[in-house]
Amino acid sequence: MYDDLLPASLAGPRLVLASRSALDRVQHDPLVPEGTEEEAQDYERHHRPGTRNVYRPQADTALLIRALGDVDLTGRRALDLCTGSGVIAAAAVAGGARSVVAVDSCPHAVAAARALRTGPEWAAVHSTVAEFADAEGFDVVTCNPPYVPAPGGAAGPLPGGPAHAWDAGPDGREVLDVLCARAADLVAPGGILLLVQSTLADPDATRRLLEHNGFRVTEAGRGRIPFGPVLRSRRDWLIRSGRVRPGQRWETLTVLRARRDPIPAAVR
After folding, report:
1. What pLDDT score does 163 carry?
2. What's the pLDDT at 17?
3. Is 210 helix (H, G, I), strand (E, B) or coil?
4. Nearest 5°: phi and psi at 59?
5. Secondary structure class of 221 (helix, strand, coil)
6. Cβ neighbours of 32 (radius 10 Å)
7. Euclidean distance between the first and final Cα of the chain, in Å?
8. How far, in Å, CA of 239 to CA of 242, rounded?
């Protein structure tokens, strides 16, 4: 079912198989761009209670898993911010991470991640990107943050559906800017941050902020997907604000890989 979503040529077979298994445990149709209210109700009815408030794995999830497949996770400490369903954290465990912490500001997502975890090396924490702290820093940090531009600001902490997982203020950067500012606190020297976002939320700004904070940034993946229900409902506003062109029906997703500069031996 997930051959198009997670091709073996783009990630290690072990990681792909484990990620497919995790996706199977979360939902049946990962290719619905954002989902409708009816689909959310059907999803909750056939899965765990409360999962209608959790972001289901989508194309951006797949892009991030593909990029994660190119990272040597063996023995590493990993952190998955904005974990949603928890499948990225599951992929990190499958890839050989020594330990994984999955973080989300939505308690429903934390519960979903805890239900998905496969062993004691995996913890799920209720916190925000701004507030989460760890004394050591992590070797690998992944994040699929909210990045959809939203008129009138981002959604509240617990709206009626999973809109908190994509709405990110008028420029789509309410969480991205916080992530960039905190990256050096969360990523250990020499460690890697992988994040996925839409080009509607200015990936060049992400790159500049991370480079300013001591990271070397490259693009690790890119994909184009049709507008889902949320972007279609905002097309007029997106056109008026200059974020999309008239007639545009697609958005581009990009995965950025940011490596934090190691501490020079002379100052250790």
Report:
1. 60
2. 43
3. helix
4. -60, -35
5. strand
6. 15
7. 49
8. 5
pLDDT at residue 124 in the model: 92
Number of domains into which the chain is organized: 1
Q: What backbone torsions phi and psi does residue 224 show, to the nearest 5 degrees? A: -115, 130
Is-above-0.85 flag for pTM?
Answer: no
Q: Which residues of 160-182 are buried (b: 16+ CB within 10 A; e: fewer)?
A: ebbbbbbbbbebbbbbbbebbeb
pLDDT reported for residue 217: 96
For position 45, what pLDDT does the model report? 42
Contacts for 184 with CB less than 8 Å, ≥ 6 apart: 213, 214, 215, 260
Q: Is 34 helix (H, G, I), strand (E, B) or coil?
A: coil
**In-domain check, residue 9:** no
Report if residue 10 sits inside a domain: no
Block means of pLDDT (10 residues each) for the chain, 268 residues, are 35 43 38 39 41 72 91 95 90 92 89 80 90 90 89 50 66 90 95 94 94 95 83 79 80 93 61
Q: What distances in angstroms separate CA 84 from CA 1, 103, 152, 241, one per listed residue?
A: 21, 8, 23, 29
> Domain limits at 158?
35-251
What is the rounded distance in angstroms from the CA atom of residue 25 to the CA atom of residue 18?
11
Residues 80 and 103 sit within 8 Å (Cβ to Cβ)? yes
- Residue 14 inside a domain? The answer is no
Q: Give pLDDT, residue 52.
A: 54
218 alpha-carbon distance from chain centroid = 17
Q: Is residue 110 part of a domain?
A: yes
Give, as one character, the DSSP assignment of residue 57. P
Taking the C-alpha atoms of residue 14 and residue 147, their distance in angstroms, rounded to an integer, is 30
CATH number for the domain that contains residue 63: 3.40.50.150
Diameter over CA atoms, the chain: 60
Q: Which residues are within 8 A (CB) of 263 and not within 5 positions of it... i.e. 6 or more apart?
A: 189, 190
